[in-house]
């Protein structure tokens, strides 16, 4: 027999969790390590660090690993150290009493769905702003006693870690996460094995492990498909965040939506509100409809009333290209069997994801979300406006200004993003109840009572912490990547905490315009080499691995930073994650943001800076459009001067240089005899007092409760009460109205007696101000059972934007009803000077209609 050089089959790996054998005095720490409460409680992280500073550093500040690896000798020492043990007891007591607090029954309960969550750098299930927002929101729900349950994915590879090659190329490293070392728990069945969810996909079930992340009092359930029960083809569904092709994306969204609801069903969790963080989760509504149709015997239209009533869709994208669209064929492959079960046709189903039903458009998750959620919102005031314009084609009978789409401006979780030094200052200076009353300006006003010197000292301490963090991290990272030691020590030792430090950290998407500062390199060189005014720029950010332009931008900045005139003045920091973000947004003096307006939906990193007395210098876009206050930061004007983007960039860049040269640097260096600039401190105080209180997640969740959750809770009760009788009534009314919509006739439409039917214009269109007008309309609704309304819509032509702009809609009075005939009247006065256009619009009317977009049938007459 021929002997092979080697011969082996593949190993069968089994996993086992080994429980840490902590002594009983320390045992509660095991539970505490597996609750992300420590992320926003410095006493807890300080305690872990004190247990074993070296191990804490090596574990990258992960307490689960720390407790798994801490030595028995060290545990013995800890037990004998009475001062340390007092701290242990205090932290455990704080944790346990926090956890024991109950949800506030007055606040609606919420199921929250998101593709990503950013809680801590330790748990790599986020890529950027969207995830960090979701993570912050869950922390706030916990602090605010909101009964919220989250659903998401546990990614094997998460998002990539970034390193930069010697020639400035971004290298994306995907490192598998070891789930046993993460702060989460497997959800167990009664038999003690991990719960597995079976999700029906066409021709097969796909299985997912069920995990739970404890976020204070909140549970977040995560699904992961990387298990042997699945085929090689299905296991990677949850490998990467925003990785893979469109088919994998659809499989993910199917899992999040349909699987997400099946999971909650399996866990016996029912909530009052179903909140989609972005359109990715919109398929929850397919399963919710199905549950009502198959479980409660409702028809599709009745079920839709119920599902919509409790659905909220938050959009984070300002441009149509940012949404997910799926080919009809691909959609059919996965969802083809659903319409029949829902009792509708395939055509009806795809049309629910189209701006123009009946067209060949791809299926848009966002449009599907809009059609299956009664309410929707953007994430800043400006983004609300942008979203109403973006979504207007879904409701062609209405103008953007009339849409129900609202906004809640994003915020940040204050206790997470405020540096320890600053939190201690707030705790010393502010009311004891401060954390529970974060939106109270009166409390924040106390910042004015803090001596300037103390604020300056704190700011310096935070800057120094950033510098030492960067030096440590960069040295470690560079050594790992085998870079030349001379380069390392030269650059990192150049960061100067006494200089004005400017930070820029975000995803390298082109609209964020990271290149703006580098538009005029001669001028930039003069700026950074002025010995009178030392200034340094710290850049960081990842580009999506498929985004060539974004990666090109990183390369360009890295190359510039290596030129002699910029060496040590412009510094690019690798691997922007939450840990670096926290140091950076608290350790620089200025946070710079230069997006192309209006493409920054909200942005939150600048809000984090606010919590730390770091001043913002940003384009008036996203949250800063609302947040900017004079003498509390700086802005680039919101006006767009050029349509040509390159010209606009040039203009904006020269404005940035000028602001640094003429305003910011002179202000920062107007030092008094004590070594600081009192005016600068005044800016810091103004910004903390007037801006910070508005941009916390506390304010954000309160806005969601008041403007969306509460009204929807009421609506949901209305339509579900008495065995869904109102839902049935509304569905029947809509069905009847829709069936008879094209049949009603306009018997009369007269303007001061003149017949305006069939598009006729006014015979004498010149009115004098104050002139009286009487308009009479008679409709014959024929067989239609429900009511109709008529209104006059006024618009004026906006020559600059070349569109008709909505001015107002005024409803007619119903003066008489005879059989199927409705008599309407309106008396008005010519009031608006200049040319304006008007038209008459008929719409369905019902006292329980939530808003016009609830049933957006319109006929212009
Ligand atoms: C806060 C944060 C973001 C979002 O910041 P933007 O201002 O929206 O760019 C992105 N990434 C990380 C790591 C963050 O901490």
UniProtKB/TrEMBL annotation:
Residues 22-123 form the DUF3417 domain. This is Alpha-glucan family phosphorylase. Belongs to the glycogen phosphorylase family. The keyword Cell membrane does not apply. It holds the Pfam family Phosphorylase. InterPro entries: Agluc_phsphrylas (IPR011834), Glyco_trans_35 (IPR000811), Glycogen/Maltodextrin_Phosph (IPR052182), Glycogen_phosphorylase_DUF3417 (IPR024517). It catalyses: [(1->4)-alpha-D-glucosyl](n) + phosphate = [(1->4)-alpha-D-glucosyl](n-1) + alpha-D-glucose 1-phosphate. Transmembrane segments: none annotated. Keywords: Allosteric enzyme. The keyword Iron does not apply. It comes from Dysgonomonas termitidis.
